[in-house]
Amino acid sequence: MEGNGLPKVFVAQPVPGEVEAYLKEHCDCRIWRGPGRLPLDTLFSEVGEMEGVMLSGFKVNGELLDRSPKLRVVSDVSVGYNNFDLELMRARGVAGTHTPGVLDDTVADLAMGLLLAAARRIPELDRYVKDGNWQRGDNEALFGKDVHHATLGILGMGRIGEALAKRARFGFDMEVLYHNRHRKPEAEMALGVRYAGFEELLSGSDYVVLLAPLTPATRGMMDEEAFRRMKPDAVFVNVSRGETVREEALVRALSEGWIRGAGLDVYEKEPVPRESPLLGMANCVTLPHIGSAVAQTRADMAMLAARSMVAVLEGRDPGTIVPE
Ligand code: DGY
């Protein structure tokens, strides 16, 4: 601490007024207000004196940490924290926080939306109508796949997984299987979901939704073998991180009919390159990583990130330190 006695922090994105007010009360803060996304070299030049940084979508690695010797905490405005080099942060004594809990329902809504959109071909048939192709007697050419009473397999049963299971079980009367690092007996009791091995889940589900965080163990978990295990009429949805999927294998699965369709919010490379084969596929619904993109949810995430950063700087446990 120096100057006005408050810790210096840099906020790498615009934040709502109440978050800014909170930050100003507790920190000596500089905020990037745009226009557009903060350039990486501006981030690098801003962090030199900072004890705290609040950001989203930037890698927290040696390049950043070498430029910020006073840094004590990086607060990610995101629930996924795969952009953190945790080993290096630990070695440098820099805490990492994230925003669990405040976006679960918003992301679960989107997962359900992608599932429905792919099952009933909503974007494809929207385009069909708008292009003036609707004629009487189209019939079977427009058929989709039922969601109600089908079996949903959830890969990664954290809070978002439970929020999705609730929608599926109680809104759509679906059977729900889940696969997770640890079994969740409370969720099994409360939601009536059943634990399954990875392979059993893939071969037994009509819909597979990937929600597992990106870790060394989950990187590329949906590979050729995994897609080949799925039912030929199954739909795959990913709202986690693109690198959990071998995209080349997914392209083959979709184009060669190993599975029926997909709904994607995330990609190996983002923004997804215009030449990606996925963008030319009618059976693949593509969104621009908008899992939490609702104003209130983003405001809640920003406030939680701000409070977490301040807690660490004041020597308190924020309850949002990223898991090992
Ligand atoms: C997150 O917070 O990790 C989500 O990807 C936001 O959409």
From TrEMBL:
Gene Ontology MF terms: glyoxylate reductase (NADPH) activity; hydroxypyruvate reductase [NAD(P)H] activity; NAD binding
GO CC terms in record = cytosol
Q: Which UniProt keywords apply?
A: Oxidoreductase
Signal sequence range: none
Q: Where is the D-isomer specific 2-hydroxyacid dehydrogenase NAD-binding domain?
A: 112-291
Which InterPro entries does its entry note?
A: D-isomer_2-hydroxyacid_DH, D-isomer_2_OHA_DH_cat_dom, D-isomer_DH_CS1, D-isomer_DH_NAD-bd, NAD(P)-bd_dom_sf
Q: Name one Pfam family in it.
A: 2-Hacid_dh_C
| Domain D-isomer specific 2-hydroxyacid dehydrogenase catalytic positions | 9-322
The text of the family note is:
Belongs to the D-isomer specific 2-hydroxyacid dehydrogenase family.
By what name is this protein known?
D-glycerate dehydrogenase
